[in-house]
Amino acid sequence: MRPDERFRPGFWTWLFGVILAAASVVTVLRYWKGLGFVTNLSDRFPWGLWVGFDVLCGVALAAGAFSITTAVYVFNLKRFQPIVRPTILTAFLGYILVAVGLMYDLGQPWDIWHPMVMWNPRSAMFEVSWCVMLYLTVLALEFSGIVFEKLGWKRAIVIQHAAVVPLVIAGAIISTLHQSSLGTFYLITPGKLHALWYTPLLPLLFFLSAFAGGIAMIIVESRLTSRALGRGLEMPLLMSLGKALVVALGVYGGVRLADMLRRGVLGEIVSGSREAAFFLLEMAIGVVIPMLLLSLRAVRRNSGRLYHAAVLAVVGVVVNRLNVSITGLEGAQGGHYVPSVAEGIITLMLVGIGMAVFAVAVRFLPILPLVEQPELATAPAPAGSLTALPARS
Amino acid sequence: MALLAHPKARALLFDVTRCIGCHACSQACKESHGFPGNGEETELDATTYTVVLDKGDDRHLRRMCMHCVDPSCASACPVGAFTKTELGPVVYDASKCIGCRYCMVACPFNVPRYEWSNPVPVVRKCDGCIDRQREGKIPACAEACPVEATVAGTREELLAAAKRRIAENPDAYYPEIYGEHEVGGTNVFILSPVPFEQLGMKIGLGTEPLPNLTWEALSKIPGIVGVGCVGLSAIYWITHRRQQVAAAERDGKE
Hints:
B: alpha+beta; Alpha-Beta Plaits; three-stranded mixed β-sheet; two-stranded antiparallel ribbon; 8 helices
């Protein structure tokens, strides 16, 4: 691993610089003048883009880590080993950025530790805050192996490897809990959230859509990384993920429609309302079109088409979370919420930081599989081994 | 898990047929909390805990915290900043609050307000004049009302009084007491001459306390943790055992 290229800022780097500069101005104003000065949040819409996108989507799209680590370490599907590290990195960054986003959104972010000592087990928010804290710890420990490897700390590597399976199991349970609990948030709003989204199954639907979104995100991130670094792609793996994504979207879409049928709200879809339009948008780009595309072998085999289908699924999860947190509440709350420019700048900054740190990390840490030597990257682990990590340069 | 109505808890009864829209209650509220403004605001805000709304036809409606029997805000708050007091009012402890604003999302009556322009913001809502009530006084709004449109008493007394008013004068009232059953009951009751929705009040909230809806999901957590630990460990054991057996057989043949 060597930073062999001289630093040459291109268009994206410049754009990132501009966003960072603007975001620092917003940051100062946010803490100096208060939330009302920089956001379009109000008593009617106490939650906006920062919760709807930064938190809800950030967590949902980081779901790839728990599903892939579980597949590899628990289900022993070793062929997915090469993408374990990049997905852990994605999730780790995702959750760190959720935490950073909360520093902007919480009214008193310096008290963020309060849920650790002031308990309210009846609160979905209490559960989510604990799960996010615990899962950040799990991700940090999972990620630490990569750093130990880079530093060559042999004893630390051995200890970390011994803990991997318990960590993965803990991560899977914690993720299941808080992915679904983000949906539980809205169970308390039956009189507010539109019938197209309000259902007692919200927790399950949030979990299922996050599961699909996490897989889609791995495909997206693999392609972006390979383009940025000019490296090959693990196409057979990504094709399998494409197939898995069809199944995951199918289960999610199926449960969603069956639930709507059972609740007798299918008629709402053709009511011609604003909500119906957003619902159709969400289901079309997030479920129906990607499922149709990915069920074609020709799409799954072509890295560009596979990528675009996965992007649709990712956007679909984003639209769903924004629909639940914003669109679906507008009718009952009276009026519309559109994020302010400043809110947009902070969100862009978080996305930008995530991408920048990812780009730096994959250059300096042993994260990406060696596709140039596929036999090395997919070599089966020794029987019974907990480590099962392919050798890296 | 649900909280039950306490018959002796303090409550308020607001009667639309009696209210003359004089704003004495909202002014008294401002005064007793030391808030700016003349009491004629039309929206709740961080320094307006109650408003008197002109609904036409000489009808006036008060809006304030309903002091739910099993409050959504109290169940939603991750740090337990809201408490349903034995005395009746739902009170808020700003020193605990982290500012997540889930209480505002959760409240079925859209009551909690936020200090959006304060860099160290807290949630604001009617505190049921808890300090006055602890001293044995009644809430400032009820004390100020010149026509007994807002009266204070125990939940039990006021429910009986409301039922009596409807029974004695059935033509003057819509025959329901808002707050008797809504979201499991509230400690503020409203009597109206017309169906509540005609005054723009929220109806169809159901009689179940809303915290039950989230608890339904949250109470499954221990089960998920248990099944998850056992299930995933078992799967791990099976998948890796199979690999070991396969390896052992391979070794045996060689």
